[in-house]
C-alpha cells in the first residue's frame, strides 16, 4: 500500500508521484500535480515541498505532500481509489496517535497488537484495491467492444445487467430499455422498421417461420450506423449499472 514517510521531527509526508499512481488518475503526473496546487491554493513549503532530483536523464521534481494535504487530495479526487486511500491515511494517523506505552512489557504487547491489527486492515485495503482493479479491467473490456461480434457481446452484457438487477426475469425489461434509448437517440422507430422488414420478406416469398423469427436485433444489424449507436448505448448501460463482471 502507499507508504507514509516520517522525518526526525515526527512530521509525516506522502510522495505525490506515488499517490498519483495509486489513484489511477487519467492525467500525466506533472499536469495533475500542478492542477492540484493551483486549484486548491496549496502553499509551498507548508502543504507541499518540491525537491529537484538529478537523474541520469533530465532532472525531475519530486513533490512531497504533508499528510493532511495528501488526505485532502485523495478526498477531492472523487473516485473509488481516492476514497480507499483517504481511509488508509486516516488509519495511518490513528496509529500514529496511539498512546505511547509506559513500560517495556506494555510496549511489546502494544507492538504485537498493532502488528496484528495493521495486517488485518492492510489486507482489507489490498482486497479493496484488487476488486477495484478487476472492475477497471472489466470496464475496459466493455469499452473495447466493437461491432464485429456485437450481438453475442451485447447479449452477455444485457444478461449480466439483468442478473445484477435481480435475475433473468429482468432481461426483457433491460432489453426494452436499451431499445428505447436507441430509438430516442437515433430517431428510429424499431417497431415500424421491424414490421417493414417482415412485410418485405413476405413479398419475397420467405417462409413464415423465418419471418416470425426476425427480431429488432436483425433490424439494427441492417443499419451500420444504428448498430454503432446501439453498441454505444449498451456500453453506457453497463457503466450506469456499475457492471463489474461480464461472463
UniProtKB/TrEMBL annotation:
Record bears the keyword Coiled coil: yes
Keyword Protein biosynthesis attributed: no
Ranges where the AntA/AntB antirepressor domain occurs: 14-79
Coiled-coil regions, chain positions: 108-142
InterPro entries linked to this entry: AntA/B_antirep (IPR013557)
Keywords, ordered alphabetically: Coiled coil
Span of the signal peptide: none
Name this polypeptide is given: AntA/AntB antirepressor domain-containing protein
Amino acid at each position: 500500500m502507499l507508504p507514509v514517510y516520517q522525518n526526525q521531527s515526527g512530521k509525516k509526508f506522502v510522495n505525490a508521484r506515488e499517490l498519483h499512481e495509486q489513484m489511477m488518475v487519467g492525467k500525466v503526473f506533472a499536469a495533475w500535480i500542478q492542477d492540484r496546487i493551483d486549484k486548491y491554493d496549496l502553499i509551498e513549503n507548508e502543504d507541499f515541498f518540491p525537491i529537484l532530483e538529478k537523474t541520469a536523464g533530465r532532472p525531475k521534481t519530486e513533490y512531497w505532500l504533508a499528510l493532511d494535504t495528501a488526505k485532502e487530495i485523495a478526498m477531492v479526487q472523487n473516485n473509488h481509489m481516492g476514497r480507499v486511500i483517504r481511509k488508509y491515511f486516516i488509519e495511518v494517523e490513528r496509529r500514529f496517535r496511539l498512546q505511547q506505552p509506559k513500560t517495556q512489557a506494555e510496549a511489546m504487547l502494544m507492538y504485537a497488537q498493532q502488528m496484528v491489527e495493521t495486517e488485518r486492515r492492510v489486507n482489507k485495503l489490498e482486497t479493496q484495491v484488487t476488486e477495484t482493479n478487476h472492475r477497471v479491467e472489466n470496464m475496459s473490456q466493455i469499452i473495447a467492444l466493437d461491432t464485429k461480434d456485437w450481438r453475442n457481446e451485447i447479449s452477455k452484457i444485457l444478461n449480466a445487467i439483468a442478473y445484477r438487477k435481480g435475475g433473468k426475469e429482468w432481461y426483457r425489461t433491460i432489453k426494452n430499455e436499451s431499445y428505447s434509448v436507441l430509438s430516442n437517440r437515433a430517431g428510429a422507430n424499431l417497431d415500424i422498421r421491424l414490421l417493414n422488414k417482415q412485410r418485405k420478406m413476405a413479398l419475397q416469398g420467405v417462409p413464415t417461420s423465418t419471418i416470425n423469427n426476425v427480431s429488432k436485433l436483425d433490424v439494427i444489424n441492417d443499419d451500420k450506423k444504428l448498430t454503432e449507436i446501439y453498441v454505444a448505448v449498451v456500453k453506457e448501460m453497463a457503466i450506469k449499472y456499475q457492471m463489474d463482471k461480464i461472463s
